[in-house]
Amino acid sequence: MNNLDRLAENSSMVKARVKSKVYSFDLDALERAVRYYGKVGTKKFFADVLPESQLSYG
After folding, report:
1. Which of 32, 29, 4 is nearest to 18 (CA)?
2. Does the pLDDT of residue 45 top 70, yes or no?
């Protein structure tokens, strides 16, 4: 998600796929990775996608 603008794929389609599959991920590990490695835009994206998480950037 940090370098989504560098992908050849349509970024809105990638975001939609991530949103649809996010609950199949290890949510604790995902939240930690976003907190430690995500840029501000990535943190905001996942804060919206995972509203029950401790990510609050928006």
Report:
1. 4
2. yes
What CA–CA distance (Å, rounded) separates 33 from 49? Answer: 15
pLDDT in tens, 2-39: 888 898 889 999 999 999 999 999 999 999 999 999 99
Contact 47, 3 (CB under 8 A): no
Long-range contacts of 34-41 (CB under 8 A, 24+ apart): 37/2, 38/1, 38/2, 39/2, 41/1, 41/2
CA distance 45 to 8: 20
Q: Which of 53, 6, 7, 56 is nearest to 26 (CA)?
A: 53
